[in-house]
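Handoff note, outgoing to incoming analyst
You'll be picking up this chain. Sequence as last confirmed:
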Amino acid sequence: MSRKRVHGGGPFPRPVAPVSPVAAPPVERRSAADNRPDPADLYAALDLGTNSCRMLIAQPKGNQLHVVDSFSKSVQLGHGLEASGRLSRSSMARAVGALKICQRKLGQHDVRRARLVATEACRRAVNARDFINVVKRDTGLELEIIEPEEEARLAVVSCAPLVSTRTEQLLVVDIGGGSTELVWIDLSRVPALERPRAIMRLHQGFDHEDTVFPRAKVVDWISVPLGVATLKDMYSDVTDDSARYALMSWYFEEQLADFSPYDDAADQAREGFQIIGTSGTVTTVAASHLGLRRYDRNKVDGLRMTSDQIDTVIQGYLSLGPEGRRKDPRIGRDRQTLIMSGAAILQALLRAWPTDRLSVADRGLREGLLYAQMSSDGVLEDGPL
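Most recent structure output, in case you need it:
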């Protein structure tokens, strides 16, 4: 597995034209002026990852988005991929079953504007194209396999509302099932009140030249082909729970050897440095820290945790052991096999970067896809986030 890394990134992929994921009735031919998107239109974003299939259907609301419907299901598409290099028949069947539900929801809401993407599992599998064809045949949905740089970009855009106006150096971390994307952004030259908005404008590209608005500068970014599912599979033969966790964390930290703060950034005051983490791992750790018996996004999204608080939660997970984690309502049966590999990634990151706080984001690729579509269509209002 090779890491993908770019200084400054590449051009943002061309804007995606509106798609019709399900059969739609014919419409009257209209002039170009009348063909502009209606702010009342619904948009959809589907993310088929290594472990989960997730979809959001939303409508632009001011400078934010209003979620109309959502779907999330663990499909374990990448199960066994590390050993075989292929998507298994059972994994593909689970994914197709979830995608059929998504197809029905798209039809029920008459969604005309959507992006339906697949990520690391499909990037790596030798039979990914066969799978994409099966999805098209069985569901009518056309999946698009996106590159790591676009995945990183969209994760950054989704986190824009959580960027503090005091932040001068920002690290956005997206821990997925099959890969982890990290983007380091310099905001020091952007006026404080414009910093969240400057992050949103990155949907135009990491290298986009904007002569009117202040720019956020992407210092560096990396895509490590290790996520909660792939890292877990690498060490599945280690029986001791604590030893397995230590090995996973050590190995992931090794992958970050060439991606760490420059000396001058590391010497900056910690107050001006912010890490935003977006993933099921981060939100689960936050829910455990808060002691939630039932998950509440309003309490988790935007929460700031210290590294000591995160350490306490992770040590609690280790004390519980596999059976205790399975019974914990904040973790659950589906996630208990993945939470320790995710925690290993999280702790490795906090050791490598100069901050003692983490901002929790219950948002990610789907929100980034929606923001990018709506921004490109001009249906989001301008103004402070």
